[in-house]
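quick one before i forget lol
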Amino acid sequence: MKLKPAPKPATPRELKLRLEADTYNELEAYAELYEAEYGDAIDVPKLAAEILRQFLDTDRAFRSWKKRQRREKGRARGNGPEAPASAQEARA
């Protein structure tokens, strides 16, 4: 099973969305597998939130982008070295 057990929740924020019936049915089936694997029932909203959390945590492109954003924000606040504007400046 690809999905890991859900950790204890932090302070939740609400997100309302509509799913296609087939997608919702698949989530219900996945929740049954989750319970069979881990011996702990999980409702569909919590399951969907956990799938989304794990997806975001393991998306390399997203993690890389977030790191770049943090570096750029740090530079904008003067908390980090500025990137050289050219290759010649990099050698200086």
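fyi The chain has a mean pLDDT of 85.
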